[in-house]
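Supplementary Note 3. Input sequence used for the single-chain structure prediction.
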Amino acid sequence: MSYTPTRSDFDQYMTPNYSPQQVIPVRGEGSRLWDQKGKEYIDFAGGIAVNSLGHCHPVLVNALKEQGDKLWHLSNIYTNEPALKLAKKLVERTFADKVYLCSSGGEANEAALKLARRYAVDHFGEKKDKIISFSQSFHGRTLFTVSVGGQPKYSQGFGPVPGGIMHAEYNDLDSVRALMGDDTCAIMVEPLQGEGGILPAKPEFLKGLRELCDQHNALLVFDEVQTGVGRCGTLYAYERYGVTPDILTSAKSLGGGFPIGAMLATDNVAKSLAFGTHGSTYGGNALGSAVALAALEFIDTPEVLEGIEKRHELFREQLETINRKHGVFQEIRGMGLLIGAQMTPQYEGRAKDILPLAIEEGLMALVAGPNVLRMAPSLVIPESDIVEGMARLERAIEKFVAQA
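The predicted structure, written as discrete structure tokens, is reproduced below.
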């Protein structure tokens, strides 16, 4: 019996923790999508900064098909060639000496936090257990990562939550100093806060965090789940700042749409993740590793990385042109192809109201909190798609302003 799912089926069969848009995309190519009725959309959402090469990129499709005919999954009882090739590539291109592979950004951050505490126990004893993160940060949905994340709404109702976690103010080094002590084992920070509003770190802030960690024998953990693998114009955002962490987490763009995550660490730190201390059943599976390696190798080229900055400028120019006409944005910010447009006080908290209007015009976009319109498209989105997508966004904003 043939069966075509509808949006109402979501409400009937799936848990209500999401509230998806009314359209159901069924096909994608490049930076464009088509729904069940054949309507076309330009994709500025990028699967929340995941679809780094758009939809069905031939490099990723070929890697998936080739590996799919060979080997999918073995578990961590055995290793496999694609995982080893991916780990080697990540080590060669970053500060790291060792790589742990998993299935998501949340898993990567969970591993990083566990490693930081284990390292502190191994070297300084159990009393060195405090973790500092930042208000409005986001690090995942496990109980540990949601507690380290600085948005209480995500942890409310799930208590008791893990202890020993403190939150400072982003880009405020004095607020970190006030919490820092010899019992601090780690600071976890996003080089650019994603869910917190597309807010880049100040260079002196990250450099100050590095110095504080060195002074107090604490580890500096960079959450690059959203900023990594070309998203900010370099392979990882830490390169832009000249600040090297002890641990880095990666996911989203790493798989180009295939679920995969990675935690990268220096040799000295990684030793504390000894045999049996942590694991992931699907982590480092051959299929995901093969796709991620193909994505990484394609993105890590001058042509792609330099093109990201060019596209960033085009996005910014187009948004500023729209804003001169309609005056809805207070600030346009971000790095590379992770861009946020903060609403003016007149439209405070109403960024989400633009999304269904954009859908009507054939455009998919995101928000980052209630007050920031977010764009995280393919890193190789054609410039013509940017221009056309912005024309659709302007029509949506015209409707938004008229309805306000």
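The two ends are 46 Å apart (CA to CA). The chain has two domains: 7-57+304-403, 71-299.
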